[in-house]
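Proteins fold reproducibly. Look at a concrete instance:
___
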Amino acid sequence: MLQKRYSFYFLFIIILVIYSLNSCSFYTASYENSAKIEVEHITATGDIHYEINIEDTPVDIIFAFTNVNEVVGSDTPDVYAESITVNGQSFSAPIPTNFEYSVDNQNSTYTFIETSTRELVESIRTSAINKNTFPLPAVPSFDVVNDTNSFGDVDTNGNPITVDATCRSVVGPILTGQGNRTLNIWVADDCWEIGGDRKHLVTTEMITALEEKFLKTGLDNDIYDWVTTILGPEWGDTGYSNLIATNNEITILLNDIDNDDSDNGGVVGYFWGANNYTDTVSGFPGSNERIMFVIDAVMYASPSLDGYSVAPGPGWTENLFWPKIVFSTLAHEFQHMIHFYQKNFVANAAAFTETWINEMCSMLIEDFLADKTGVEGPRGVSPLIGTAGSPGNSEGRLPIFNQYLTNNLIITSNFGGNDPHYSDYSVSYAFGAWLARNYGGVEFLNRVVSSPYANKEAIEYAVQAYTGGTESFERLLQRWGAAIFLSDKTEAPGLYQYNSGGWFTSAINGNNYNLGSINLYNYNPAPEFATSTFQLSSGLTDAGSNVYLLAKENASGKLAWDITIPQDVRLTVIFKGK
């Protein structure tokens, strides 16, 4: 009888141990702190027990929880109702979001441009119009200074309007790495120095400054050369009868965008792919049939020191706030222009590029050109220095990223929404800035744009081409989460670097490009993360986001955590020495 009882207890213990092993993962580590920085990626989900022994000087331990479910579907598990538990305290898990493209909320110029361009590109793939079926349209005539024209445009609701303008400059043909190019600059008549009635008016001096920045005689000395060296030409023959032929011209129209006469914010400029179509029923009625940008004339002409107050003294110079923003915007929109052609007609991508990737590429172009154009760019640090700058920096995109650290990365529509801080742009730039500094610099950007992929696969393709191995988007998100909190360390491990202490230099087609170092702790605010599970349960999570918890500050000795992780969430543990 006793023998049977012991056998029963022994069998019960065996079953209990097997059950425990199946339901809980054990992680142990002995951290000697020789390098003072380590990163560990945990692949297990469910209940895990994590132990650590810190044998040297104390470190901070940060838990980064990453949602790795990029697409929501009926066959994909979600974590909407699940939570993460750390030592018995629960908080909401970062949750996936529906990334299906939506055309709702068309309440801004950007949203209308995004929607209409996407629809036009998709119509080519689905319509009966075939390549090389009809003869190409005739090449347009070159512009002449003092020509007048009525340009088609749209208001903030997408309603067609006309802009009466006069050609104020024709530069070229100028030899570039892509062949001869001509730049035509037009100014809306109500924005010109003679006869205009806007708050600030465009002058000949301003036209000259725009010419010098975008296209001038010589190679590798202007925005046109610098961007096309990385990405290739902005347009070429497509063979489609409803797209205009190439004539090697680019037009810049200076106009009061949105008709708001604003000199303290708004839409600075845009590229609209609809103008690349013919003005026909099969093309886009109202197209200007030009490869062109629109730049806000009022902000460009503003003699403001900081975007709000008017500068005292001699008035407008190209080194003031808004002119520098315009020059950076030209580079930004030029990427969009080239991306439209290279992705859709050269690479023949199967879909229209997701917005967050396209915007990431444009902000990286600004970043790569910052020291060349003499503009701070999205990094918000002097373009003269490669170091991470000084503490308290409130410039550029990164202060907003720090403030909204748990915001979504993948956004496919209504980018920026109604958020005046444009936090979506900041998150995309922060991710792209890390990728470019770790995975090949300008070659990374070139590969994203030239690849046939329009979603996260473009990122994976560019990374894998650089490393020669397989790197999933899931692991990239985890690496990025760690890199954020190591950005004040110039000795951060490879592939986790924002900050080398100087320039990150890369080359393409024989030309060098620089990216400055980034220390996210130098910005105001610094990266915001939870220091307790109570804070996490109080709303610091968001759809499709990462969540960060300071698990232990100045940790030493033996420590342990029992953690419950939902199926679509991964844990990264960051050990950060002082």
Q: What stands out?
A: DSSP finds 13 helices and 15 strands in the chain. The mean pLDDT is 82. Residues 321-346 form the longest helix (26 residues). The first strand starts at residue 24 and ends at 31.
